[in-house]
Design brief:
By secondary structure, the chain is of the alpha/beta class. It has two domains: about 15-70 and about 125-190, FAD/NAD(P)-binding domain (3-Layer(bba) Sandwich), CATH 3.50.50.60; about 195-325, no CATH class. Helices cover about 40% and strands about 15% of the residues. It is built from eleven helices and 14 strands. It has helices spanning about 45-55, 90-105, 110-115, 140-145, 190-195, 215-230, 235-240, 250-265, 270-280, 285-290, 295-325, and strands at about 15, 20-25, 40, 65-70, 75, 120, 130-140, 150-155, 160, 165-170, 170-175, 180-185, 200, 205. The chain has a five-stranded parallel β-sheet with strand order 2-12-3-4-8, covered by helices on one side. Strands 1-9-10-11 form a four-stranded mixed β-sheet, with no helix packed on it. Strand 3, helix 1 and strand 4 form a beta-alpha-beta unit. The chain is globular and about 65 Å long.
């Protein structure tokens, strides 16, 4: 596919591994029968988070886990991603928090600080400024659990794993044949970053891509609906404008700006707006449109979203311009 698939169980690591080294994707962890000397988890994203959580849940001592994180990440609170009535205050409320944080920010750094204070973003270490954002979700309980792991290595990417040492971009650490090295270094985002974006619609070719962040299934359904109901290519591509997938923390800005722009364009097309409201892949629209206007708490959240949306777009445009100018 155009977006490709790069997962630990099938990808080729971009570093060398000595034959004597115990090296495996996280899928193989349940196959281990003899207790190893320790575990070395390689990667700073969601796969590594899952590997570390699994090890802790199965009783591995946190001190027996070494976690190589070349970059720390901003993470999304999973409570904010549940499109159900029970989580309305979290999910829809987080949209208000997001818009208000962006609109009120004096700088990009201040924006991330406000997003964290408001509970929209989380991080694993309060003493380390995240430089990565892949939109990984996590619960607060999982953050607390992962903070039990103290052996965190921040020496850049791994370049080589030998029998007794791991060589990284900015140093090296000891290891042994008795350690299990867990490969969580695959990156869909890095793979996609090598692709030159193309319009979704170009002549007779349709190239499904992200037109709403984090949601490939909804994005594909949107492309299908637009292909079936519109004929002008320019209009079709406007409705299916690409949302860039984030890698660096600052990529949150163009991604969010593109999503908000798309959402506005969709809202101006009544048939399309109606279809989105009925799309089972878009639970948030249903949740918002079903709000009881007599519910003061929920209506206050909706008011906050409405008031802060345009100021947030203006601030994102300002920050995007600063990024393009290299500020």
């Amino acid at each position: 596919t155009f977006l490709t698939v790069d997962v630990p169980s099938t990808h080729t690591p971009n570093f060398s591994i000595s034959p004597e080294v115990q090296f495996m994707p996280l899928n193989d962890l349940p196959k281990i029968r003899a207790k190893p000397t320790g575990y070395v988890v390689i990667g700073g994203g969601k796969t590594a988070i899952d590997a570390c959580l699994w090890l802790l849940e199965t009783g591995v001592d946190p001190d027996d886990i070494t976690w190589i994180r070349s970059r720390d990440a901003w993470l999304l609170d999973r409570a904010n991603t549940q499109p159900t009535e029970a989580f309305f205050t979290h999910s829809v409320g987080s949209i208000a928090v997001q818009y208000e944080a962006i609109a009120g920010a004096d700088s990009i750094e201040d924006m991330f600080d406000r997003l964290e204070v408001g509970g929209y973003l989380l991080r694993l270490d309060k003493n380390v400024r995240p430089s990565m954002f892949h939109a990984a979700t996590i619960s607060r309980a999982e953050v607390t659990e992962l903070q039990r792991i103290k052996n965190i290595v921040r020496l850049g990417h791994v370049t080589e794993i030998e029998e007794s040492r791991i060589v990284l971009a900015n140093g090296e650490i000891e290891t042994s044949k008795g350690h299990v090295h867990v490969d969580c270094s695959a990156s869909l985002i890095r793979t996609i970053g090598k692709r030159v974006p193309v319009p979704v619609f170009k002549g007779k070719c349709i190239t499904p891509q992200m037109i709403r962040g984090y949601q490939p299934a909804f994005s594909a359904s949107m492309a299908a609906y637009v292909e079936a109901n519109y004929t002008e290519e320019d209009e079709m591509n406007k409705l299916c404008a690409l949302v860039p997938m984030p890698n660096q923390a600052e990529d949150f800005i163009p991604m969010t700006l593109a999503m908000m722009t798309n959402q506005f364009n969709w809202s101006q097309d009544k048939p399309l707006k109606r279809w989105i409201g009925q799309n089972r892949l878009d639970g948030f629209t249903k949740l918002i449109t079903s709000v009881d206007k007599n519910d003061r708490e929920k209506m206050d959240i909706m008011r906050r979203i409405q008031v802060s949306a345009m100021p947030a777009v203006a601030k994102l445009q300002q920050f995007a311009a600063e990024l393009s100018e290299g500020f």
